[in-house]
Amino acid sequence: MKKLIFSGTGYPVSIKTLEYLQDNTLNTVAAFTKSKVNYEVIWGMNLNLTKTRISDGAFVYNGEIIPFTGGVLGIDPTITINEWIDSDTFNTNPNSLTAVETLPAYSSKVGSIGTGGIHTFSVASLKRYKQQVVIDSGVVIRTEPDVWKGVFDGIIHCDHKPLTEDELANTMIIYTLTRHNQNTSYLNGASHNLLHRFSDHFLISVSMALSPGESPMVQWQIVRLK
């Protein structure tokens, strides 16, 4: 949680201030979408009785909440995500008032019916879940000698109770990568990816920098979608 502390008047607004405000919002969205899957509907996006129109709403894609503008559905309709980037003038040299440059400043993403955006998928791929039930959870800490060299670059193996074929097909894995002995979410500067799922375990590929005494830790849940 990040917040500004207004200790007095004349607050020193800067780029750091704006980053602080934006990071707080983005971190909240990221935490919420960790319990969601791609194309899961957040609100709206309802079909009319004849299934020829879809209403406004919002859905999840790649950890972001994408607002959606409804419209008319054709045959095999698709949703596309459009991104608009607006530019503005920046002072690139604080010692010169005339050192200005036009640079990207604002990004907006909106989903709509159609094709041609940065990502397109079928309307049939939208998912709606009323309930998510945790069927197993755990914590895995990698403490092998190689993690104490300032960087970890390897595979984290997470065992769980055996799942049936139906459970494997209708569950999702939610995990958070943290640093053991500090226990704060570690996303900046780290890369991680769910490699593969098996009936009794899953594998996560992780690359992250570590301070002395730290080791990578994964807190995970297996959630059944209903």
Describe this structure in words.
This protein is mainly beta and 226 residues long. It has helices at 15-33, 165-169, and strands spanning 41-44, 53-54, 57-61, 64-69, 71-72, 78-91, 100-113, 119-122, 132-141, 151-159, 171-180, 191-197, 201-209, 215-225. The protein has a six-stranded mixed β-sheet with strand order 1-3-4-7-6-8. Strands 9-14-11 form a three-stranded antiparallel β-sheet. It has a three-stranded antiparallel β-sheet with strand order 10-13-12, with no helix packed on it. Strand 6 and strand 7 (100-113) form a beta hairpin. The radius of gyration is 22 Å and the shape is flat. The relative contact order is 0.14. The model has no long low-confidence stretch (mean pLDDT 86).
Descriptors for this entry?
single chain; 226 residues; mainly beta; 6-stranded mixed sheet; 3-stranded antiparallel sheet; 47% strand
The number of helical runs is 2
Q: Indicate the low-confidence ranges by residue numbers.
A: none
Q: Tell me the fraction of residues in β-strands, as a range.
A: over 45%
For the sheet with most strands, the description reads:
6 strands, mixed
Mean pLDDT: 86
Short summary:
The protein is mainly beta.
Describe how the helices and strands are arranged.
Elements: H1 15-33, E1 41-44, E2 53-54, E3 57-61, E4 64-69, E5 71-72, E6 78-91, E7 100-113, E8 119-122, E9 132-141, E10 151-159, H2 165-169, E11 171-180, E12 191-197, E13 201-209, E14 215-225
Parallel strand pairs: 4-7
Antiparallel strand pairs: 1-3, 2-5, 3-4, 6-7, 6-8, 9-14, 10-13, 11-14, 12-13
